[in-house]
Specification:
single chain; about 200 residues; alpha+beta; Umud Fragment, subunit A; four-stranded antiparallel sheet; 3 helices
Length: about 200
């Protein structure tokens, strides 16, 4: 009888361990799917704020209950035109940022900073944002360097429900300047903290 009790106890403990693991995995997947998702920085477009390979945490649920703001760093689906720098139905207009995205979204994720929101007026001067007529203070931005995409003197108005995205590395970022603003429904979430590498752990 003692042997049967021991066997039953061992089976119960094993079942309990399996259940704990399953529940823990379920919670982890649920948190990642609906609340917080890790994201790895794939390019230099957000230098110096975020380096290639750095990892951030993205708040997925916040965008459902709040409005994105200028200055937020967000992960989002870009328009399908981001693959070819297509603005709406063609190339970006000469001398102005793209103000109309392609209708479909791309099946990739980008991370950029929101620099303008619905109804804002925007132009670009040497890579720096002029928002509603005021040159913005952007200490986080890497200088543009005079290359393609540094100057868009013609002002545009951001359409309703859209957000204009730019990388902090203004001379090396593929962003809304070339393929247009992003609808709110394509924004996955706001990056709020970095957790890797250890020397760069902190809030954004």
């Amino acid at each position: 009888m003692a042997t049967k009790k021991g066997s039953s106890s061992a089976s119960g403990s094993l079942l309990e361990l399996v259940l704990i693991v399953v529940v823990a995995l379920g919670l982890a997947l649920g948190i990642q799917a609906f609340l917080v998702k890790p994201y790895r920085i794939p390019s230099e477009s957000m230098v110096p704020t975020l380096q290639i390979g750095q990892r951030v945490l993205v708040n997925r649920i916040g965008m459902r209950f709040s409005t994105p703001g200028v200055g937020d760093i967000v992960v989002f689906h870009p328009p399908a035109g981001s693959d070819t720098n297509t603005c709406g139905s063609g190339p970006p207009p000469q001398g102005q940022p793209c103000d109309q995205p392609t209708a479909d979204r791309a099946n990739v994720n980008f991370i950029k900073r929101i620099v303008a929101g619905p109804g804002d007026k925007l132009r670009i001067d040497n890579g720096r944002v002029v928002l509603n007529g005021k040159l913005q203070k952007e200490p986080f931005a890497e200088p543009c360097g005079g290359g393609e995409g540094c100057d868009f003197p013609t002002e545009i108005t951001i359409p309703a429900g859209m957000y204009f995205m730019m990388g902090d590395n203004r001379g090396s970022s593929d962003d809304s300047r070339f393929w247009g603003p992003v609808p709110k429904k394509w924004i996955i979430g706001k990056a709020f903290a970095t957790y890797w590498p250890p020397k760069r752990i902190g809030l954004l």
